[in-house]
Amino acid sequence: MTKLTTSANPAVDTVENMPPLPPFTLETAKAKVQAAEDAWNSRNPDKVSLAYTVDSEWRNRSEFIKGRNQIREFLTRKWNAELDYRLKKTLWSFTENRISVKFEYEYHTDSGQWYRAYGNENWEFAPNGQMQRREASINDVPIQESDRKFRWER
């Protein structure tokens, strides 16, 4: 990551570049998707929120979120409720500054019920590589723990 010194967009002033930067190629779009998957699997709201512009706009299911602070609060709430969260993202399509992904993730609630969530996201990026818009549609399906696909060593 490198510091930006100037920007035409005040929302990205004095923030860091988040490579790969647009315009995307197949290789850089795949790398961006993998970086997002790795970050979200860290379940670290402070770290993950830095990938978004300070005024980033989200639609996550039926929730509308505006700005990095609300993103951090949302992610904290999410990962406090979705325990042992594990995500897999796959590139669906891309253009110069937009990427679409399909994804699935698994988690369990504090009652022990496991879920697999399926969804699609559309992302739009600022020139510095931070995401400025995220639209997510997600469906949850209850599963048995024995049906989990994503297992990892702790």
Automatic annotation (TrEMBL):
Q: Where are the transmembrane segments?
A: none
Q: Which domain of life is it from?
A: Bacteria
Q: Which Pfam families match?
A: DUF1348 (PF07080)
Q: Which InterPro entries match?
A: DUF1348 (IPR009783), NTF2-like_dom_sf (IPR032710)
What the entry lists under Gene3D superfamilies is as follows: 3.10.450.50
From the UniProt entry, list the residue stretches annotated as the region Disordered. Answer: 1-20
Protein name as catalogued: Nuclear transport factor 2 family protein
Q: Which species is this record about?
A: Synechocystis salina LEGE 00031
